[in-house]
């Protein structure tokens, strides 16, 4: 009799080995890049989106970007004077928290900051995000943009979507083949932590609220082996 799949033992050795090998590969790649590039930046990401991160990678094809594996990245830089790879690199470690990455480049700090100050992209919010706005769908016929644009520039919501929006909490009904609300319906308030129903409704009505931005925290320069924090630089400029 064949053994039940439920009773099958799965060895984690290969998985663990691959994980260690991947960590070593990333560690070595960072160390090699530290020898090649003049500047090491720590950056964080708001409203992380892979598509937008790919845009950043495409812009910096002459550089190296590492994202994720924060502990491995931190270890590659060094966390103290004793184990830092280059003098004062360990000073970057205090910024290595949350969704952060490393940018190793030969571009000047002015060129890097100029690019990221102007780079942003909007996308649909995900569950768990905080809404930056209040969105209310007016009473009457429901339009495809939920009142975000003038009715003469919009079209009524497809009648086939009535059961969908009703299932997501909107008290709609069909009147003469049109999706209708007896009274206005607030999808979310500003400051709400959005749930999956709210994010689906926002997306259905084409409301984008998530802004992908890269925040530069600090950089290390091989010219003087010093770390400069961006907030401190901005205060000096003020």
From TrEMBL:
It holds the Pfam family Ribosomal_L10. It is found in: Cytoplasm; Nucleus, Nucleolus. Gene3D superfamilies: 3.30.70.1730, 3.90.105.20. InterPro entries: Mrt4, Ribosomal_uL10, Ribosomal_uL10-like_insert, Ribosomal_uL10-like_insert_sf, Ribosomal_uL10-like_sf, Ribosome_Assembly_uL10. Keywords: Cytoplasm, Nucleus, Ribosome biogenesis. GO terms for biological process: nuclear-transcribed mRNA catabolic process; ribosomal large subunit assembly; rRNA processing. Residues 125-207 form the Large ribosomal subunit protein uL10-like insertion domain. GO terms for molecular function: RNA binding. Coiled coil: none annotated. One of its GO terms (cellular component) is preribosome, large subunit precursor. Associates with the pre-60S ribosomal particle. Belongs to the universal ribosomal protein uL10 family. Component of the ribosome assembly machinery. Nuclear paralog of the ribosomal protein P0, it binds pre-60S subunits at an early stage of assembly in the nucleolus, and is replaced by P0 in cytoplasmic pre-60S subunits and mature 80S ribosomes. This is Ribosome assembly factor mrt4.
């Amino acid at each position: 009799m064949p053994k039940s799949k439920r009773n099958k033992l799965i060895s984690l050795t290969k998985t663990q080995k691959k994980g260690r090998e991947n960590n070593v590969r990333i560690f070595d790649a960072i160390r090699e890049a530290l020898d090649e590039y003049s500047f090491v930046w720590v950056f964080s990401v708001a409203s992380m989106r892979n598509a937008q991160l790919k845009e950043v990678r495409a812009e910096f094809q002459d550089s190296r970007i590492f994202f994720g594996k924060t502990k491995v990245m931190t270890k590659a830089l060094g966390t103290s004077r004793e184990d830092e790879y280059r003098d004062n690199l360990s000073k970057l470690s205090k910024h290595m928290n949350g969704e952060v990455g490393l940018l190793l480049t030969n571009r000047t700090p002015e060129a890097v900051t100029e690019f990221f100050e102007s780079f942003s992209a909007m996308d649909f919010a995900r569950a768990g995000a905080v809404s930056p706005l209040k969105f209310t769908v007016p009473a009457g016929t429901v339009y495809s943009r939920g009142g975000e644009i003038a009715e003469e520039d919009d079209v009524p919501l497809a009648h086939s979507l009535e059961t969908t929006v009703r299932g997501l909490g909107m008290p709609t009904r069909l009147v003469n083949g049109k999706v209708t609300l007896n009274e206005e319906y607030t999808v979310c308030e500003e400051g709400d932590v959005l749930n999956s129903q709210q994010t689906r409704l926002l997306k259905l009505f084409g409301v984008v609220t998530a802004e992908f931005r890269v925040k530069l925290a600090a950089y290390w320069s091989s010219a003087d082996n010093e770390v400069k924090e961006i907030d401190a630089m901005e205060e000096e400029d003020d």
